UniProtKB/TrEMBL annotation:
Chain ranges of the Multidrug resistance protein MdtA-like C-terminal permuted SH3 domain: 152-209
Lineage of the organism: Bacteria, Pseudomonadati, Bacteroidota, Chitinophagia, Chitinophagales
Protein's organism: Chitinophaga tropicalis
Domain of life: Bacteria
Protein name from the UniProt record: RND efflux pump membrane fusion protein barrel-sandwich domain-containing protein
Gene Ontology cellular-component annotations: efflux pump complex
All copies of domain CusB-like beta-barrel, residue ranges: 76-145
Length: 221
């Protein structure tokens, strides 16, 4: 980024650059003179990276099957079509939602996976935590399965990740005078959480909201 582009950001209210100079590279982080105003500090969101078990997800769309296939009143069977169906396993945690009941999420566990010969269609049998009669046959559903993959990694909100030219970055926040652009390697994203395999340590703070202007000002990408 040249000086002309940096000077453009001097006109953005609440965002200040102390000077225009070439970045210094220190441990994979890009450093530039940068001061974040108190106004901008109140606008951004800051989260702390944590070390936690990796949680994986599978998403399916389907519909509730007829009552005759249900082994117990609180069970449901969902007809699904997905190439990911062979990855589903008994015991996975399940969340079931339907547009007919937008405010309700049903929780349970997979107690059966039935795959057809083409391996892309079949049924999931889900035992709900609490008996429910609101899920009726033919209702269209969204099913999300959760399970741990056995690894522990650094986790941050997915919104903290900035994708740029097939590379991923975060803004590491130490104080309003010290913000670094840090390249990271991501492992997977599950729900709102992204797991990082390299480039960030537990306990470091990252900016995870309203950070694009700051990144544009600091980055040479």
């Amino acid at each position: 980024m040249n000086c002309k582009r940096l000077l453009h950001f001097l006109l953005i209210p609440g965002l200040y650059l102390g000077s225009c100079r070439h970045p210094e590279i220190d441990g994979g982080a890009t450093k530039k003179t940068f001061v974040l105003s108190d106004t901008m500090l109140k606008t951004i969101r800051i989260d702390t990276a944590s070390f936690r078990p990796v949680q994986m997800e599978l998403h399916f769309s389907g519909r509730v099957a007829g009552k005759k296939t249900i082994a117990r009143k609180s069970d449901i069977v969902v007809d699904v079509a997905s190439a990911s169906l062979p990855k589903a396993r008994e015991g996975y945690e399940a969340e079931v939602s339907t547009s007919a009941l937008p405010e309700k999420v049903f929780y349970g566990k997979v107690d059966g996976v039935f795959i057809s010969r083409d391996t892309t269609t079949g049924r999931l049998s889900i035992r709900l935590d609490s008996p429910e009669s609101k899920l009726q046959p033919e209702m269209f559903t969204q099913v999300v399965l959760h399970w741990g993959d056995g690894n522990n990694m650094i986790a941050v909100p997915g919104t903290a990740i900035i994708a740029d030219h097939n590379r991923n970055f975060v803004l590491v926040f130490k104080d309003k005078y010290n913000i670094q652009v840090r390249e990271v390697e991501t492992y997977t994203t599950s729900g709102e959480i992204t797991y990082i395999s390299k480039g960030l340590d537990a306990g470091e703070n990252v900016i995870s909201g309203h950070q694009q202007q700051i990144y544009d000002a600091l980055s040479d990408n």
